[in-house]
Amino acid sequence: TETKASVGFKAGVKDYKLTYYTPEYQPLDTDILAAFRVTPQPGVPSEEAGAAVAAESSTGTWTTVWTDGLTSLDRYKGRCYHIDAVPGEDNQYICYVAYPLDLFEEGSVTNMFTSIVGNVFGFKALRALRLEDLRIPVAYIKTFQGPPHGIQVERDKLNKYGRPLLGCTIKPKLGLSAKNYGRAVYECLRGGLDFTKDDENVNSQPFMRWRDRFLFCAEAIYKAQAETGEIKGHYLNATA
């Protein structure tokens, strides 16, 4: 006799396209849209490959699970809604995928790209995959707060008005000790620049820890200010 569980749910693998390929779907203004260049493995139809990308980057997994019944897949799933063959290329397709906005944390680029360009790139049904284009809706863009202030506050802090602000990035961007980095900052500010800044590659490497750079840059700023009578600044990279 069959148990109640076996009657209510049948485990196993089913084609992604049965759930995630929806050519009749009309994308919403609030959907995040992605265009992927897909090269399926031999024998894998383009519809299945596109649906696999939509599934693995949203709510799908390699097998059916009973917990799918605890949510609304129609509301949260990604959808492959259109496929174009790439002209002049053999077995390459542009697959268009729509993602509902609720799949993503507000104001998080990391979460968005982890979902869209995450483990789906290691999917076995695909020989190759590349994200070609991305449309981010205004509704999602508005969840990013942006910088806490703009150019006017920067001018107020530096007490510089009526002209462009003049600054530079310290070079070489990698390899300087914190002391020599501070020396370069001082020479730039003493020579007439309003501010200096870290290169994006500069974080807290063994040759120059962030704390040491902060202290030497602060010393450089105070010394340049005392000698010029002007307010000076340095922008430290604190993003990673």
TrEMBL record:
Its gene?
A: rbcL
Catalysed reaction(s) here are:
D-ribulose 1,5-bisphosphate + O2 = 2-phosphoglycolate + (2R)-3-phosphoglycerate + 2 H(+); 2 (2R)-3-phosphoglycerate + 2 H(+) = D-ribulose 1,5-bisphosphate + CO2 + H2O
- Organism of origin is Portulaca pilosa
Gene3D superfamilies given in the database record: Ribulose bisphosphate carboxylase, large subunit, C-terminal domain, RuBisCO large subunit, N-terminal domain
**Subunit record text:** Heterohexadecamer of 8 large chains and 8 small chains.
Cite a single Pfam family from the UniProt record. Answer: RuBisCO_large
Q: What is this protein called?
A: Ribulose bisphosphate carboxylase large chain
Q: Where in the cell is it found?
A: Plastid, Chloroplast
Q: Does the keyword Magnesium apply?
A: yes
User: Where does the Ribulose bisphosphate carboxylase large subunit C-terminal domain lie?
Assistant: 150-240
EC id: 4.1.1.39
Task: Please provide the record's keywords in A-Z order.
Answer: Calvin cycle, Carbon dioxide fixation, Chloroplast, Lyase, Magnesium, Metal-binding, Monooxygenase, Oxidoreductase, Photorespiration, Photosynthesis, Plastid
